[in-house]
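Example record

One chain of 85 residues, shown exactly as stored in the release files.
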Amino acid sequence: MDKKVDIAKRFDHEISGINEILSALSDGRIYEQTKSKSDGTLYNNVEKLRDKLNDLFLKIEYGKESISEEIGRVFFTLTESEKSK
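Predicted structure tokens for this chain:
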């Protein structure tokens, strides 16, 4: 069976952000254990994870651009406008 869309490749940036949070959680990097504010509380990490997952699902379900596609489009537009000057 052929893939219609390679989700892992297309949404690599979004998935990478989700994996970063999961890695931090699995390594025990939460404020309650490390007392480092940069790690964030368990609650805040779960909220960030929930937000990132919801954002990814919405993009997939409604055919919206990935972050990489948005950056590429903006870069292309800027490059084209520079060429026309």
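Notes: The chain has a mean pLDDT of 93.
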